[in-house]
C-alpha cells in the first residue's frame, strides 16, 4: 500500500483545476471522481484516509461524507475533511498566534462596547439596536481580515468635508480600531478570521520550503475571500494538490473570458472563478471536467446560460448566434415546466406534489432551490402532511425554535412588567423550571394561575406577583379543613401526588423571580442562553 507521500491521484503536472458541471450533484460527483482516481492509481480502498479534502461549509462536509459512504458501498474509511473557515481552529496546523475568540463571546463583547458608546452619544442610535450594530462590526472585522485590510486605515477617512453623519459613523467604527484590540489582548485571543489568515501565511512559508506530498483537494469554493483564494492557490501548486470548481463554464468564448479577466463585468457569475484561475495560474481552457456530464441536455443548457449571461461589452455576438441559441434552448429547456399558481398556498402545494412524485419514483432525486424562506417553510409543512421530513439547508429561524421562543418570552415578560398572560406563557414553556422537578413546577404553575393570576392583582410588577402568591399561601393556611379538602378535590391526580413535598406558592414564585427584578431577568436570560447554546 502506498503511503501518503507516494500516493499519486494526479499524474499530470500542476497547478491543476477541474470543474463539476452545474446541475450535477456536487458531493456525489466529487466522491466518485476521487474513488475512480484511487482505483486508477492502483491504491487500495484504505488509501482514501490519506486524501484530504477542504470544502466551504460544514454542511458540504456532511454531504460529502455521506456521498463517500454511498459510493464506497458503506465502507467506513473516508478522506479527511476540513472547512475553509476552520483552518485557524485546527491545532495541528502551524501557527504561533493566540487562539481565536469564540464567535458568541466576540458578539457579546462588541455589544458592550456599542452600548457604552450609545450611552455616551445618545444621538447616534437607540441602545436597543446595540446587538445588531455589534453584528455589523463583527462582519466588518471579518471582511477586513479576510481581505487583508488593516483597520488602521479607518484613521485615513477624512470627514471634515462631508456631512455630520460621516463623523458619527467614523466614531462608531473607531470601536474596532482602538477599543477592540485592547479587549482581545486582555482576553488573550485574536479574531477568527485573523487567525485563519495567519495560518495560511504560515502554510505558505512551510509548503514553499517543503511542498506537501499527500493529496489535497479544495472543492466547491469560488475564492471570494482573499484568505480563501490564497489557500486555494497554495493548494493547487502542491505536487498532489487540485482545485475542483463549481459549475465553471468550459465552453465560454475567448471574448467573454478576456472581458471577465479584465474585471469589466464583476457582477458576472463566472467572474470570481476567472479571477481565482488567474490567481492560481491556470488558463481557462486548461480547466478539465472532474467527471463527465452524464445529462443529455447538460451541455446544451450550459451553452444557453452562457449566451444569456454574456457581459454587456460582448452582447453584440448575439446577432450571429441565433441558430445556436435556438438549438440550445430546444434541447436545454425541453424538460422544464412552468407552473403559474394563483396564490402562495397553491404554489407551495404544487411544489410539494412535484417533490413527492420524485420521491415515489425509483432513481429520481429532487430539490427545491428558493431564496424565499417563507415558501420553503410552506413546502416543508405540506410535505409533513404526507410524512415526509424535508432536509432544509436554510434551517429554522431561531425565533421559531423552542429556545428562541423561550428567549422571546423572557424579554416580553420583563418588557410588559411581568404581565400575567405573558408570565404564564413563559412559566408553561417546556424549558422553564425553578430548580424543582418538572412535575412540581407544573403543579405550582397551575395553582398560581388558578388562585393568583385569575384573581384581582393589587400591584403591578414582581412585587405584586409575590404578594399575590403569598396571599394564596396565607389563605391556604387559614382555610378551614373543609375548604382544604374541597380544594384537594378540585386538583388533578398529578397535582395531588407529591403535593406534600412540593414548595409553597410564595417560595416557588420567589425562586422563579429571585425577588429582585434585575436579578430575575439575569437568571432567566442565563437559562435562555444555556438553551440557545444547544443549537450550536
Tell me the structural class: mainly alpha
Helix-strand pattern, N to C? EHEHEHHHHEHEHHEHHHHHHHHHHHH
The poorly predicted ranges are: 481-502
**Large-scale geometry:** globular
The termini sit apart by 40 Å
- What is the CA-based Rg, rounded? 31 Å
Structural notes for this entry:
The protein is mostly helical. The chain contains 21 helices and six strands. It has helices spanning 26-40, 58-71, 103-120, 130-147, 164-187, 192-209, 226-236, 254-261, 271-280, 298-308, 322-332, 344-359, 373-384, 402-415, 420-427, 438-453, 461-478, 481-490, 493-496, 505-513, 517-533, and strands spanning 17-20, 52-55, 80-83, 216-219, 241-246, 288-289. The protein has a six-stranded parallel beta sheet. Strand 4 (216-219), helix 7 and strand 5 (241-246) form a beta-alpha-beta unit.
Describe how the helices and strands are arranged.
Layout: E1 17-20, H1 26-40, E2 52-55, H2 58-71, E3 80-83, H3 103-120, H4 130-147, H5 164-187, H6 192-209, E4 216-219, H7 226-236, E5 241-246, H8 254-261, H9 271-280, E6 288-289, H10 298-308, H11 322-332, H12 344-359, H13 373-384, H14 402-415, H15 420-427, H16 438-453, H17 461-478, H18 481-490, H19 493-496, H20 505-513, H21 517-533
Parallel strand pairs: 1-5, 1-6, 2-3, 2-4, 4-5
Helix pairs in contact: 1-2, 3-4, 3-5, 4-6, 6-7, 7-9, 10-11, 12-13, 14-15, 14-21, 15-16, 16-17, 17-20
